[in-house]
Amino acid sequence: MKIKLTTEISTSSYGQLMFVIDDNPVDYYQGLKAIRKQYTLSVKQLSEICGVSASAVESWEQGRRSPSKPATMLLAAWLEKQKGEGK
Known about the structure:
Blueprint: E1 3-9, E2 15-21, E3 24-26, H1 28-38, H2 43-50, H3 54-61, H4 69-84
Antiparallel strand pairs: 1-2, 2-3
């Protein structure tokens, strides 16, 4: 599975998080679940990467809330690091 994270920054203080999995755009909550599965991350581990609480990640994955711009940027940086390490 090939996961790509793109971020579109709008005029607001929040970014629009979008994932592309195997060349198909998916909603952020589907993308987050795919990332956790691919990297075998728990909700707690993903929350630590994004600098938020585990309940925030659960809210994202359930589609109730969207990640903030800072959380999105931390996740993007972590994914880039994984790609650089060949993971």
